[in-house]
Amino acid sequence: MQKPERSTTNNTVATIPIRNIWLLLLYASDLYKTLGAQQRVKLEQNPQELIILVAKLYCQAVSKRLMRALSCGYQQHTQSLTRVRGKIDLLTTARQQLLEKGRIRCQFDSLTIDTPKNRFIHAAAHVLLAQLEDKTLIRQCQNIISRFTALKIGQSTQYDHLTESFDQSGKQDKTLLTLCRLIFNMAIPTEQAGSYLLEQADKKDQWLRHLFEKAIVGFCRTNFSSKDWIISAGKRLYWQQLQPSTGIRDFLPSMQSDLVIERRQCRHRLIIDTKCTSIHTQSFYKDKVFKSPHIYQLYTYLRSQENPVDPPSLNATGMLLYPAINESINESVTIQNHQFRFCTIDLNLDSGLIRKNLLDLLSQWCCSSSSFQQND
């Protein structure tokens, strides 16, 4: 039996070198996939230069966008007018007796450049400005802010890019918005020279957990050849059902894995579940034991998906992957034809070692790692 788990934040994510926070942000970003091999190597070796690269690309993209006019959008207005425009609000018009005053209440759309997208781009310049030291980049950001202010475009740190549709002319906006999202992610609180001290708050832990998960996914998608590997992030896993009752589908929950990697040649599958706590806890009999709930979760991912018509599911490997500080664990065991792996990535190491350790961990389960897109 395990004792109630104590707070383990101090042992896992409390002190991470700033350069390795940048490294995780690099791996997690869409920008990482678009970089050339030499540029990726340079940034992996010096991840603190990521902010400089992002600033340069952002300023270039915004300047080009301003040269050919910002994208427009429709904004809804409700106003009392002297003529009909758009849709008439009959109830308000009658209630306020506007017709007797020669006016009518209307709802209409008007074309504007003060859109959520442009406000998001404008706000990114302010966030970026506070993090830069290069005088040339600072001046370019100030010019961008002046232009947006002159155009009477506000600021917004929220933008639902998933609802946006991009045509051929909007591809530049898509790249620019990718840079903006990365800029907001890099605005880490309590920034100091040297190391970061993350406050022991659930919000901060969730932020790092999400970042760590995205970083592992981005790292795999960039370093594994899509010709030889199938990589799925956030894949839904469903229970294999026999003789279901009429309403069971409305109540039975599905599962969502963090990362599934499959080697086409080996016909073997790896299911990775990332965590952001200590890899071990304390029991009544041992000072350090792996956490039962995490093992049960991974066990469910593996055994619930076994299907004779899907051969890789019958001997799939499961991995629990944790960020750690000054701790390296790589243990494995086979349970009911499935290998279970318990691994940590030491985020206190040099960025080159972090990359090497990730490749080593991910290559041990497959028959060969020769199809990795090595870029060093």
Automatic annotation (TrEMBL):
Q: What is this protein called?
A: 5-methylcytosine-specific restriction endonuclease system specificity protein McrC
* Pfam families (alphabetical): McrBC
GO aspect biological process, one term: DNA restriction-modification system
